[in-house]
């Protein structure tokens, strides 16, 4: 989560086949309350879960899938992106880290 926080509001380029789209990082939500516990009562995993909310252009709706996502400072990441909302101006997508 800390890696993405400084880039809230910035543009990420998403490659979908032969096209490249600009997505904006709209928000980062802490989901640590969803972190499970093992039989010993200790938290499972090494990081707290979080969700990124991205907006993409209204002209193209991407299916949920793995995409190559590039940011000028973060480099290229492979992320599972899924759509979850439509507004008059944009499609909203989320990326879940658990």
How would you describe the overall organization of this protein?
This protein is an all-beta fold and 98 residues long. It has one domain. 0% of the residues lie in helices and 54% in strands. It has strands at residues 11-16, 19-30, 50-57, 65-71, 75-86, 90-97. It has a 6-stranded antiparallel beta barrel. Strand 4 and strand 5 form a beta hairpin. The radius of gyration is 15 Å and the shape is elongated. The chain starts with 10 loop residues before the first strand and ends with a strand. The model has no long low-confidence stretch (mean pLDDT 87).
Rg from Cα: 15 Å
How many individual β-strands? 6
The first-to-last residue Cα distance is 11 Å
Compute the number of structural domains. 1
Please work out how many helical segments DSSP would assign.
0
Secondary-structure element order, as H and E? EEEEEE
Biggest sheet strand order reads 1-2-3-6-5-4
Mean pLDDT: 87
Q: DSSP strand (E) fraction?
A: over 45%
Helix share, percent: under 10%
> Which class do the helix and strand fractions yield?
mainly beta
